[in-house]
């Protein structure tokens, strides 16, 4: 019982030290694992892709002060997401991902 409580406290403390990009990358990877039935290796690769995007977006925010420039460059990064996911996913997983994304965008 004590070990379980210590484990929960450790995990709670660890999650509080995560940066926003890490938290978002982890949530996206877990959601995709659940909905697309990813392997652990695929989940790790998706997490890495999302961390790379988060770092790139933070770099854009640091390099530019003009909001229009920031918006355009971040949108370019977001537009690259599918092409970064594609090599990680099987063809069926990628098609399902695209369908889920369309449904989310269209609020279906």
Please identify the structural class as seen in this structure: mainly alpha
Please indicate the percent range of residues in DSSP E strands (runs of 2 or more). Answer: under 5%
Query: In angstroms, what is the radius of gyration?
Result: 17 Å
Helix-strand sequence: HHHHHH
Mean pLDDT over all positions: 87
Count, helices: 6
**Uncertain spans, ≥5 residues at pLDDT below 50?**
1-15
Indicate the overall shape: globular
List the quaternary state of the chains: single chain
> What is the count of β-strands?
0
Span between N and C termini?
44 Å
Helix content: over 70%
Largest sheet: none
Please tag this protein with its features.
108 residues, mainly alpha, disordered N terminus
Description:
- The chain has 108 residues and is mostly helical.
- The protein contains six helices and no strands.
- The chain has helices spanning 2-16, 20-36, 40-63, 67-79, 81-85, 91-105.
- Helix 2 (20-36) packs antiparallel against helix 3.
- The radius of gyration is 17 Å and the shape is globular.
- The protein starts with a helix and ends with a helix.
- Mean pLDDT is 87; it is low at 1-15.
């Amino acid at each position: 019982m004590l070990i379980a409580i210590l484990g929960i406290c450790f995990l709670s403390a660890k999650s509080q030290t995560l940066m926003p990009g890490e938290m978002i990358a982890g949530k996206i990877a877990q959601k995709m694992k659940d909905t697309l039935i990813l392997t652990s290796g695929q989940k790790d690769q998706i997490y890495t892709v999302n961390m790379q995007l988060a770092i790139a977006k933070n770099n854009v925010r640091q390099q530019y002060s003009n909001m229009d420039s920031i918006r355009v460059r971040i949108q370019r990064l977001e537009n690259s997401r599918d092409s970064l996911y594609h090599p990680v996913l099987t063809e069926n997983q990628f098609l399902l991902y695209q369908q889920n994304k369309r449904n989310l965008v269209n609020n279906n």
